[in-house]
Amino acid sequence: MHELSLIQALIDMVVKSAIENNIKKVTKVQLVVGEYYGALPETLEFAFAILTEGTVCAGSELAIEKRTLLLKCRECAYEFRPEGYLYSCPNCTAVNAALVKGRELYVDYYEGE
Ligand SMILES: [Zn+2]
Asked: Of 7, 57, 68, which Cα lies nearest the Cα of 29?
């Protein structure tokens, strides 16, 4: 499962940081996930619940902030949101776009005690 590998590294980071900061129990993890990954929130929550078992993050709340995709046309510099899998520019119809936003994947912050 794709989401498992995405989230494993993030959990490792939180666990390492929590141990370093002498936090016994993490209560909440705020995640930022770009639309690019196509990860469903419920799948991420499921992966999170499995992967945090037996760690300081076990039982913590996972909050997900989604970032929408934004592309920029390399031909005319027009910025647009892609519709489905059509990445052609609505302004000049060129299919030559660069990803501006939507590839974020990180832990914004976490709370613990
Ligand atoms: Zn264009």
From this structure: 57
**Domain with 89 in it:** 2-19+27-112
pLDDT at 97: 93
Predicted TM-score of the model (pTM): 0.83
- Residue pair 52/6 in contact by the 8 Å Cβ criterion: no
**49 alpha carbon – ligand 1 mean position (Å):** 42
Residue 44: give its domain's CATH number: 3.30.2320.80
Burial of 16 (0-12, 13-18, 19+ CB in 10 A): exposed
Distance 50 CA to ligand 1 centre (A): 43
Domain total in the chain: 1
Residue 17 vs residue 38, higher pLDDT? 17
